[in-house]
Automatic annotation (TrEMBL):
Encoding gene (name): med25
Xref: InterPro entries: Mediator_Med25_VWA (IPR021419), vWFA_dom_sf (IPR036465)
Regions of compositional bias (Pro residues) in chain numbering: 237-247
Domain of life: Eukaryota
Record region (Disordered): 235-288
Stretches with biased composition (Low complexity): 263-288
UniProt name for this protein: Mediator of RNA polymerase II transcription subunit 25
Organism for this UniProt entry: Aceria tosichella
Length: 288
C-alpha cells in the first residue's frame, strides 16, 4: 500500500454490494482491477497478488462479505444473495469471479434496495458475532469497528420497497441508506457511469459530496467514484506529456492535440456542472 494513503482502521467490516447483471458485466474486470483490488489492499495492508490462494491466511482484523443483486428478470430466484464472511482478500476475489453477470438485458433498473437491505442484515450478523466472541473492553472495541458498504452498480433502482429481508421489510431505499447513516456505516459508490440518483444516495447516507467529488480516484473520466472514510491512490489531474522536452512536434499531431483540448476541458467542467446543479436543486428544495 502506498505510503501516501491514510492508514486504515485496525478493525473493519466491509461488505461489497455488486450488481450481478449484464449491464455491469462488461465493466467488472476493469472495476475489479482499478478499484476492488486496491480497496482490498487498503484494508488488508498488502496486495492480494502478493499471496497465493493457498497462503492467504487473511486480514487479521478485517472481515469481508459479498452481496450480489439482480433484476426482476431473476424471478423466481431471490433478488439478492449473500456470500461470506471471510478475512481472505483472495477468497473474496474468487467469489466475485464466480458471479454470473447475466440477465437484465431488457431491464434498465436493478434491485439496489434489496442489495443494500441484505448488506444491513450482514452488518447485523457481524455485530452479533463480535459481541458473542468478545467480553469486557474487547467487546467495546468491537462495537467501535469501522463499517463500510461499497456499492458497485450500473443501473438505477426500482422504486419499490424492500420485500425479501425480514428485518427491513417495507423500507424504501431512502430509509435504508438513512439507517446506514444512523448506524455509522460508511457508504461508498463505484460505477462505470454517472447517474444522478447516486449523488443523492451518497449524501443521504451521510457522505460529503463536494469533498468526494474533489478527489481524482477514477481511472476513466466516465466513471464515478465516491468514497467515504477510506481512500485510494488518486490519478494525475493531467496526463504527462508524450513528447520529450524541446522535441519537434509534427503538425498533424499538434493539430490533433489542440483539437482534443476542448473535449478535455469539457470533461473536466461536466463534473463541476453536475455538482453545481445538484447543489442548486437542494437549495430550491430547502426554499420550498
Amino acid at each position: 500500500m502506498s505510503a501516501d494513503l491514510e492508514q486504515p482502521a485496525k478493525e473493519a467490516d466491509v461488505v461489497f454490494v455488486i450488481e450481478a447483471t449484464a449491464n455491469l458485466g462488461a465493466y467488472i474486470d476493469a472495476l475489479k482491477t482499478d478499484y476492488i483490488v486496491p480497496t482490498l489492499e487498503y484494508f488488508c495492508g498488502y496486495a492480494p497478488s502478493e499471496r497465493s490462494f493457498a497462503t492467504d491466511v487473511g486480514c487479521s482484523d478485517t472481515l469481508f462479505a459479498l452481496v450480489a443483486y439482480s433484476t426482476a428478470n431473476s424471478a423466481p430466484e431471490p433478488a439478492s444473495i449473500c456470500i461470506g464472511p471471510t478475512s481472505s482478500a483472495q477468497k473474496l476475489l474468487k467469489w466475485i469471479d464466480t458471479l454470473k453477470f447475466v440477465g437484465g438485458g431488457a431491464e434498465n433498473l436493478g434491485h439496489v434496495t434489496e442489495g443494500l437491505a441484505s448488506a444491513l442484515q450482514i452488518f447485523d450478523d457481524f455485530q452479533q458475532m463480535h459481541q458473542s466472541n468478545d467480553i469486557g473492553d474487547e467487546k467495546k472495541q468491537k462495537e467501535n469497528r469501522r463499517k463500510h458498504c461499497i456499492l458497485i452498480c450500473n443501473s438505477p433502482p426500482y422504486q419499490t420497497p424492500c420485500i425479501e429481508s425480514p428485518s427491513y421489510f417495507g423500507l424504501s431505499l431512502d430509509h435504508i441508506v438513512s439507517s446506514m447513516r444512523e448506524r455509522r456505516i460508511s457508504l461508498s459508490i463505484i460505477t462505470p457511469r454517472r447517474m444522478s440518483f447516486l449523488f443523492k444516495l451518497f449524501e443521504k447516507a451521510g457522505g460529503d459530496l463536494q469533498s468526494a467529488m474533489s478527489k481524482h480516484y477514477a481511472r476513466d473520466v466516465r466513471h464515478l467514484v465516491l468514497l467515504k472514510h477510506y481512500e485510494l491512490q488518486e490519478r494525475p489531474i493531467s496526463p504527462p506529456s508524450l513528447n520529450p522536452p524541446h522535441a519537434p512536434i509534427i503538425q498533424s499531431a499538434m493539430n490533433s492535440t489542440v483539437s482534443n483540448l476542448p473535449q478535455q476541458h469539457q470533461q473536466a467542467s461536466q463534473q463541476q456542472q453536475q455538482l453545481q446543479q445538484h447543489q442548486q436543486q437542494q437549495q430550491q428544495q430547502q426554499q420550498q
